[in-house]
Amino acid sequence: MCAAFDLATLRRQAPEVEWLDDEAQRKRASRDFSWFSPVLKRALDCARAEAVARPADQSQALAVIAACARQGVPLTLRGAGTGNYGQCVPLHGGVVMDMSRLDRILGIADGVVRVEAGARLADIDTAVREHGWELRLMPSTYRMATAGGFYAGGFGGIGSIRYGSLEEPGNVLAAKVAPMTARPEPIEVRGMAVRDLYHAYGTNGVLLELEYALAPCLPWVERLYTFAAFMDAARFGHALAHAAVDLRLLTVLDAPIPPLIGLEGKVPDGQCAVLMVVSRTGVEVADALAAQGGGHLAFEQDHAAAFGTARSLIEYTWNHTTLRALRRDQAITYLQSDFPPGQALELVEAMRSRYGAEVLMHLEFLRRGNVPSCAGLQLVRYRSEARLREIIAEHRAAGVYIADPHTWLLDEGGRSNPGQMALKRRFDPHGLLNPGKLTTDGYEGLKP
Amino acid sequence: MCAAFDLATLRRQAPEVEWLDDEAQRKRASRDFSWFSPVLKRALDCARAEAVARPADQSQALAVIAACARQGVPLTLRGAGTGNYGQCVPLHGGVVMDMSRLDRILGIADGVVRVEAGARLADIDTAVREHGWELRLMPSTYRMATAGGFYAGGFGGIGSIRYGSLEEPGNVLAAKVAPMTARPEPIEVRGMAVRDLYHAYGTNGVLLELEYALAPCLPWVERLYTFAAFMDAARFGHALAHAAVDLRLLTVLDAPIPPLIGLEGKVPDGQCAVLMVVSRTGVEVADALAAQGGGHLAFEQDHAAAFGTARSLIEYTWNHTTLRALRRDQAITYLQSDFPPGQALELVEAMRSRYGAEVLMHLEFLRRGNVPSCAGLQLVRYRSEARLREIIAEHRAAGVYIADPHTWLLDEGGRSNPGQMALKRRFDPHGLLNPGKLTTDGYEGLKP
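Above: the input entities. Below: the structure tokens describing the complete assembly.
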């Protein structure tokens, strides 16, 4: 907890702002979806903001920043709280600033949308769609998630098979960021430098506005194919990812997963499933490649009609696969893997054989550096943290890259970089932004 | 020449068809752009059709096929004659069938256009553009080239950085093809099988109609950047090809090339050039990456406004680079190379150093199997066929793939496959289609 917290002073210095401090509100604003990990759930459960600020506009947000900076109060930013690693959990108390009222869509032109950080991705997508565009990338939580939260704590998801992750140059073009100082003057960060704000959990600046590059809207269709053999399904995914077919999503689920996540009505028992969002232009090629591997079309629907509802297949993919499985079976957790191109399918097959029912294969095809690649969000039957660490270590030893989702530490998750740290020194000179998320931010001794 | 050629009989059997047989017409219809290669120019120059058929519709085309099949007359198909390997040169005389009057656009829906084989790519592109689409792939000769000629003898070009080559599954979805028989019944070929008609020079069936998959039309801009150092230009191209930026073209020209091809007004003497068609959304990233390599924007124009005119930068790329250089200096010819991903830039640098002014680097970035890749269309100062063969052999020994543009033989160019040969047996049982283009078609002894 923050040593010298004094809400009265904060209120006085930022009197226009809505401040919340009852226990239920503070608890709600101090949690995210890190309960996907039993390790994080245990570690982060008791973290609690001392107050929640809900600025209505950017000038109020600047007032909150100024007040906290003057008092030396930690400030943790929150979008919709859909992160999975405690991104917005205030490990050292202080203020959580809920950015969701900063939700204006500021402009749409030439395939770029400029928004305030609290704008919801679903609302942005609806707005740009009228201009013939769509968001390039969205998490499976797009109905709740915000533009700022996605960039500060997300990765990609729907659309990553076309455009890679948020980190790839070109997906996010600019950000307006406020420093954590007593007189915060917002700064426009453009070009390559904007990437230093990516996936920094709000530790190195307060995102106020973002420019997202858009994709042309295509006539998408959602399709689900079933396969008797998992490796046939995986090979189909691999072949389709390497064909000249416009895709928005390509997910492979091993046979035990569909009944765990509510797809038993669409996928016959014992069958593996490939879920995709594919342009109508590509449907025939998808059918032809599926047939080569013995796959059958089991379900189809228009994507635009299903989009934004729980009917959409995209809500059975990425970390919604994990979410749905967890709702049915709380003993499940997950991995985040990258199988290196060139030996992806071999490693998938080897890891699948090695762990059997303990680690269930869930593959997501995406691009990395514009190269088709295969990621895993395997469902793990959790036994103990020691066993989980062992599984992670074994994957790494076998050549599978693991971005550990069972740590709240940014640098342990494998995503921090020198540019991030340089911005941290520049925009958070007193180390007040989201403290405890970096091993190097001076808060190590205060781990919860 | 064809032993038993009898035009009177052909005319009688296909009386509706326009037949041409004067020397100038036969000569014109027997040539293509294979004069880019001094080897092919010498070898193919005297090949001559005995007659030219110009069917006005598909039923007339079938009548020509039937008449030739009955008489045992070789039949060679011709679109606009823009091929570079003698694709439509009638090595053994007989009839050349000019397909250019079969130019109907039959339908546009769901990102697919269906056309007759003789439709010009520029006309197709204009038609689909009204529906918000554009052709995925076009050669630099798109103003003349036809849909059928492109598929039967082309590769890709403009757009290959997004969608690869015509060979990739998904770019061409179907073809209606007539067999070379006395009673030709057209057959619809769909799915993976259509690829067996790709780049077969019309040796294994007569293409009547094609379905091309389309791309969403984007707000493209043409840009030309200059660099002092070639490898900085190449690295810039490589970085941009791997970024999340929508591109339609990405070409790198070594410093001696711009003044050879009419770009001296745009590129200062001694500078290397990077030409691109990039979405407006991606311009800022292109600028940022160029700046990292010391590049400067030298020229910019709207792509849609320049498209279809000689002003467009696309007419300085792909084999139009070669064409323009040849117009100024007839001692030039070219290579077609693929630099293997992973060591592309190293091999480019090594080959460039090795040959100096004898082989000038012209790179085209594209995709192969959906992976960004780097191809070369190097300009070669021609000394002798022996030296050219030596250069090709040295490239291959160094690990550079060469698709030899100095042979009229399909299987020597490296593009034939078992599926092509199976269709050949099925659709051309008497070996009359474009004879002499396959080492295995029984015409070896008759090489010109």
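Note for the figure: The domain at 105-216 of chain A is CATH 3.30.465.10 (Uridine Diphospho-n-acetylenolpyruvylglucosamine Reductase; domain 3).
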